[in-house]
Amino acid sequence: MSRDSLGEFEHMVLLAILRQGGTSYSVPIVVELEGRTGRSVAPAAVYIALRRLEKRGLLTSRLEDNDPESGRPRRYFILQDPALEKLREARQAFANLWDGMDAALEAGRAGGRS
Amino acid sequence: MGRSSLEPPRILRALTGLGVPRDDREAVLADLDDLYRRIRPRGRLRAWLWYARQVASFPLTRARSGMSDGARHSILRALSTDVAQDTRYAIRGFRNTPGLAAVALLTLAIGIGATVAIFTIVNAVLLQPLPFERPDRLVAVDLLAPGIAATSLRQTAHTYVVIAEAESSFEALGAWVPSSAAVTGAGTPERVSTAWLTEDMLRAFRVAPVLGRTFGPGDGEPGGPRVALLDHGFWASRFGSDPGVVGRTFHVDGETTTIVGVLPGGFALPGHDASMYLPMVLQVGPTISFDYRAVGRLADGATIVTANADIDRLLPRAADRFDAISRDDMERVGLRSHVHPLRDVVVGDSGTILWVLLGAVGLVLLIAIANVANLLLVRAEDRDHELAVRAALGATRLRLVRQSILESGLLSVLGGVLGLALAYAGVPLLLRVAPDTLPRAAEIHIDLTVGLFALALMMAATVAFGLVPLRRIGRAGAAIASGGRSTTPKGRARGRNVLVVAEVSLALVLLIGAGLMVRTLVALRSVDPGFAHPGEVLTFRLTIPRSATSSPERIPDAHGRILEALATVPGVTAVGAASGLPLERRSNRNTILARDSDEEPVSGFYKGVVGDYFTAMGIPLVAGRTLTWDDLRERRPVGLVSEGVARRYWGSAAAALGRHIRHDSRDPWREIVGVVGDVHDVALDRDEPGGAYWPIYLEEFVGFPWMVRRSLSYAVHIEGTDPLVVLPAIRQAVWSVDPSLPLADVQTMEDRLHRSTSRTAFVLTLLGVAGAIALVLGAIGTYGVLAHAVTSRRREIGVRMALGAGTRQVRWLVMRYAGGLAVAGVVVGLGAALGLTRFLASVVFAVRVHDPATHATAIAVLLGAALLAGWLPAVRASRVDPNTTLRSD
User: Cα distance from B250 to chain A (closest Cα, Å)?
Assistant: First the structure.
């Protein structure tokens, strides 16, 4: 994979935003990731990943000084076209790699340790 | 304005903020608050721990994401080898001596916790700037009148007007007067505190309303529409933060009032939490009354000195313009300007007390550190051999030093975190015992400054402990040379002795302080307040609103009807009312002029009284009679004086009857028809000259054509039951006369007595706790040193016993050691107490700070504790079996 491919966590964060309609902020992303992966997710990791993805042009953000919902400052992140492109690429790459591997995976389980 | 428990602890929030770039800080913290609220229902501890993790999480994640993989790996590898190993080693070390580790941690936590808790209060009250823009430019503009011994007087309308018109030194100058009002027409009737503000007052504070407008020209003019600004909290509690509140009307003291604006949250006048602000236009009348609290914002280039000089130049103009003031009067009393920082007015005399208390807990912290250092010293000695072995196996000196710092750091950080938790839990408890007069109490919380203070304490403790064993590391090599046995017992024993002597001396200072406060409280509680059965007297404040009667002549009857209704309540034996109760700090004061006495005029209180006030309060009638309804109705020129005034002018109570007094040269002379017992009107710890009592309606009084009391403090004597049980019936009785009258400030006289001693009780509680902790820590320290001395001198003791020393001699040997340490501590402590207790001079009463009895008691307690601490080791020493000890060598 190329140097600027998505890391696993970045991949997960982008998917979480996509699930929420392409625009979201850190709280629902943390909740989504925790709910779907069953692992605890550090808000700091999410926030820093978001800012990094923004720097790479995959997201843009806007700061609401006085969010109408909470009345407090909140930073929203918006998925950009290059991000969708990256996600598509990644899915394709994984699909290629997985192709025809189902049987091997099953066998591995049945065969135990080698 | 309590914080809901759904908010994360402020300290953690502040610390987390430090790890986030400034641009993102607010948004990130708001997001974390949201997440915290989701976790909070699963338990407070869990939520706290989660939030505590976030503190480290942001800087660590940022650092990790900015590093190359190679750098990350090498750092991780380094951490996983040396430091991690040392940390594991340190933890294992503490695990092997769990008792010592627990005692050290607890000692440190108590020391740091107590210091941080008091510092939290000091920080909010004394260190944080006042919550206004450029608070250093805000000044109180008062007056001094040394001729009548007035340390600080407020402005009269006359002086204020001439200063305000010139306004040379001030960018803005305003005045305010505290008051209270009955609010009706928006929910239940309620009495709330209010403040009258001149138009420019908010401009001087640089406060703008969050809703609506501020006061402008025309507001507050007599006959004009009545308007009010709401306090932010009152807007929330009474109007549910309704954004459409501007323009709504309600009734203030029965008058229709329009809300024109809402002030921002956090705004409060210095020392007065008002629910509502009303516009005030100064009325320059024929009389002088120093009621206006003037606050100015100094103009650019102006200073307190130039402002004072300006005002001193302006003051004579007030005499030229107004008849009420004459230049002669001004010169006689020495009237001059007293511009001083607003902060001084807000903080008042709490500063001294708070610094004293911070000093006291600081001493506890020193004792705690000395104690822990002592424990570590003992431990370090036991580990001489271990250090020597590690050195021999190739551990560098640096490594050993790092190990030592790491251990003490670990101890300090754990102790500090525990201490911070103790402080977090302790501050609300402290505020519960704190006196009502503590300023800025609403602003007290653990903030970043407090967090940094705690951090500094932890670092200081780390250095203090780290240094102790360090000295031993240098000797590690020497120990090897001597075959691994410990050396030079003398030097190290001296170090421990010094620590114990220091502990004992600090403990003595605290015990003496606590002793002085006990004496003060006992003295205050035994002062005769001048009124009897305080537990049986229920008091409250009632105001006859203008809507009930606008005619002043009818006000006494309105009070009369309420008094009659109250008298019918079962259990009530006497009811009366006065314009101010003893210890209520509501009385007016003025000079009392006597017609036929050569004595210098005294300045005393004057009160309007009605009904059976003196019977209800249990104030004895010493001579003559009390005031009657006929005196009131027929406007008779009569009054009462207290015994002190009578004695001062005429030698005895009886001699005062038939004499005449007045307050002002324009008033008629009024005849004294009775003399009543003296009361403590202002405070229990003050000698007070007494005062005069008048009917509640008077003609020609202190320059006014008439004087009537709309607001009175009622005193109801109730026999046979708890006054608070009767309270509902009392309320019903008042409401049977007028259902819109709210009862304000309901409390028994007993409550007022307690409140008047609450400051002493607060200082006593804290010094008592500090003294007790110091005593226990000092005893533990003494015990530790003696126990260790007995262990390390077993051989010597064994030899002595083999040579014929008996149980008694051996015990005496140890007890002499204990006694020596204690006596040395007492000597040093007495010296320290001599210098330090003078800071208590402003809070003690009826006892001198160098009171010998208190000192003797404290010394006895301390020596007793030290000997008790020595006894166990002494007994152990006497059980040394010489055969075993000598054979083992």
Answer: 30
Give B-chain residues touching A68 at CB under 8 angstroms: none
- What values do phi and psi take at B631, rounded to 5? -55, -40
Cα–Cα dist B133/B123, whole Å: 19
The pair of three-digit structure tokens given for residue B739, joined into one six-digit string: 């259902």
Enclosing H/E stretch for A84: helix A81-98
CB contact under 8 A, B28 and A42: no
Q: Report residue B18's pLDDT band, with 50, 70 and 90 as the boundaries.
A: confident
Instruction: Enter the ipTM.
Output: 0.85
pLDDT at B93 over 50: yes
Instruction: Compute the nearest-CA separation of A97 from chain B (Å).
Output: 26
d(CA B682, CA B583): 5
Of B464-473, B764-773, B874-883, least confident by mean pLDDT is B464-473
Q: Running DSSP on this structure, what letter comes out for residue B126?
A: I
B429 CB-near residues (< 8 Å, 6+ apart): none
| Confidence (pTM) | 0.67
User: Which residues, 6 or more positions from B668, have their beta carbon under 8 angstroms from its beta carbon?
Assistant: B637, B662, B700
Q: Partners of B730 in the beta sheet? A: none
Tell me which residue in A25, A42, A48 faces B31 most closely, judged by beta carbons: A25
What integer pLDDT is reported at residue A1 of this predicted model? 43
Average pLDDT over residues B542-560: 86
Does the structure show a pLDDT above 90 at B482?
A: no
Shortest distance, CA A28 to any CA of chain B (angstroms): 9
Give yes or no for residue B640 having a pLDDT over 90.
Answer: yes
Higher pLDDT, B665 or B176: B176
Q: What is the C-alpha to C-alpha distance for residues B133 and B204, in angstroms, rounded to an integer? A: 10
**Strand partners of residue B744:** B541
What distance in Å separates residue B71's CA from the closest CA in chain A? 18
- Are B34 and A27 within 8 A, CB to CB? yes
Give chain A's radius of gyration (CA, Å): 17
- B272-B274-B278-B280 Cα dihedral, nearest 10 degrees: 0
Contact A73 B62 (CB under 8 A): no
B140 DSSP 8-state letter: E
- A26 contacts on B by Cβ (under 8 Å): 28, 31
Q: Among B115-129, B137-151, B403-417, where is mean pLDDT lowest?
A: B137-151
Tell if the CB–CB gap between A45 and B24 is shorter than 8 Å: no
Report how far residue B293's alpha carbon sits from residue B298's, in angstroms, rounded to the nearest whole number.
16
> Is residue B560 within 8 Å of B610, Cβ to Cβ?
yes
Contacts of B62 in chain A (CB under 8 A): 44, 48
Per residue in B641-673, pLDDT (tens digit) is 999 999 989 999 999 999 999 987 778 999 999
CB contact under 8 A, A70 and B58: no
CA distance B57 to chain A (A): 6
- pLDDT tens, position by position, B721-756: 888 888 889 989 998 998 878 888 888 999 888 888
pLDDT, mean over chain B: 84
pLDDT band at residue B247, thresholds of 50, 70 and 90?
very high
User: Token pair for residue B762?
Assistant: 């607060």
Q: Residue B666 is encoded by which pair of tokens?
A: 């324009």
Nearest Cα residue to B252 out of B202, B175, B174, B179: B179
- Please name the member of B27, B53, B60 whose beta carbon is closest to the beta carbon of A73: B27
Q: Name the β-bridge partners of B707.
A: B698
Asked if B58's CB is within 8 angstroms of A44's CB, the reply is yes
Residue A34 has which token pair? 């925790």
Residue B160 predicted with pLDDT over 70: yes
Take residue B416 and report the two structure tokens written for it.
Answer: 């500090």
Res B175: pLDDT: 94
Which of A60, A57, A50 has the alpha carbon at shortest distance from A13? A50
Q: Say which amino acid occupies B534.
A: P
